[in-house]
Write a structure and sequence with these properties.
The protein is 40% helix and 21% strand. It has eleven helices and twelve strands. The protein is α+β, with helices and mostly antiparallel strands. It folds into two domains: 204 residues, Jelly Rolls; 104 residues, Orthogonal Bundle (Arc Repressor Mutant, subunit A), CATH 1.10.10. Keywords: DNA-binding, Transcription, Transcription regulation.
Length: 332
């Protein structure tokens, strides 16, 4: 409960925007998905007509998005998320980790947390944009395969959406999205919405391709150490707790240097850097959903474990390109 407003992460939130203003469209996409995202029109801007409906539901964010004219999108490392782009119309030219994918209504593109993304997005392309929290998908695959897995997950760069299971998964996403848009379906019930969200995450875990062949056992690869898994689980369970490097090393059962090296190898950053970004994403998500007349930025920051507001504000601005108060004001 914040300022009389109850924040319910299992209740879907809907955000929509239609605009011909490039800056407004860019700010919306940064707020909904990734702060460092760049959107640049290519050629004639006269046809630019951005349209987006975005549903936020806990660990997933689903948007149906089009721009009306050709654009170029650049995104640095996603870091805390996996992402799927599934065109409904047109073709998307995608580059990620040295691989080019032509995504269209028959094939979706998949993005891992590490590696820059560049998209050539024509005006004819309307697509589903699905963001899945990194921890949610990794925990789901870890449980489904009943074994240690390398992280970031060694996912393939695309999957077929004409045949099952890809077709089934996209249909599930579209059904959830349509239910939230209609505003009078079962998705309005928090318990049902949370189960639907979990089905989207688990369905993706069973759908997405990987570079080792058809069998799930192909996900084995180099093992993720249990020390890293224990540390990640602890941080996700209590993101606001004032962990020190020594605390996390104790949880992992190894020395600080060993844990730091394991995180750099298997997560791509140090434990405390991951924790800070986890907290920032939590604050960002809450501010994006909250009523600015009822919520105070400082209270939200403190609740997510930030005790120095100056450093918090600087880190937030570096990650999302705007101040926390700007994110909250955009809800008015």
């Amino acid at each position: 409960m914040v300022g009389g407003l109850e924040i319910r992460p299992d209740a879907p939130a809907l955000f929509s925007l239609a605009t011909t203003d490039v800056d407004e469209a860019r700010a919306f996409c940064r707020r909904m998905f990734y702060g460092p995202l760049r959107v640049d029109p290519v050629g004639d801007r006269s046809a630019f007509a951005f349209r987006a409906d975005v549903v936020s539901l806990g660990s997933i964010t689903v948007g149906e998005i089009s721009y009306g004219s050709d654009i170029h999108v650049a995104i640095p490392d996603l870091e805390t998320s996996y992402h799927v782009l599934a065109p409904l119309t047109g073709m998307l030219h995608s580059r990620h980790r040295g691989t080019v994918v032509l995504a269209d209504p028959t094939r979706a593109a998949v993005y891992r947390p590490i590696g820059d993304i560049e998209l050539d997005w024509p005006g004819s392309c309307r697509l589903l944009s699905i963001k899945v929290e990194r921890g949610a998908l990794e925990r789901e695959l870890d449980a489904a395969l009943d074994q240690q897995i390398v992280t970031p997950l060694l996912l393939g760069d695309s999957f077929n959406v004409i045949d099952a299971p890809g077709r089934t998964w996209v249909s599930l996403v579209r059904l959830l999205f349509g239910e939230v848009l209609s505003g009078n379906g079962l998705s309005g019930q928090p318990r049902m919405a949370s189960r639907w969200r979990d089905m989207v995450v688990s369905g993706l875990a069973m759908t997405v391709e990987h570079p080792y062949g058809e069998e799930p056992a192909g996900m084995r690869g180099p093992n993720r150490p249990r020390t890293v898994k224990r540390t990640l689980d602890a941080m996700h369970a209590e993101p606001s707790r004032q962990f020190t490097a020594a605390d996390l090393a104790t949880i992992a059962g190894v020395g600080v240097r060993v844990l730091q090296e394991s995180f750099r190898q298997h997560v791509g950053m140090s434990p405390l850097t991951y924790l800070r970004r986890l907290r920032l994403d939590g604050v960002h998500g809450e501010l994006s959903r909250s009523d600015p007349w009822q919520v105070n930025v400082s209270e939200v920051a403190f609740r997510w474990g930030f005790t120095h507001l100056g450093r918090f504000a600087g880190a937030y601005r570096d990650r999302y390109g705007v101040t926390p108060s700007q994110t909250l004001r955009e809800r008015r």
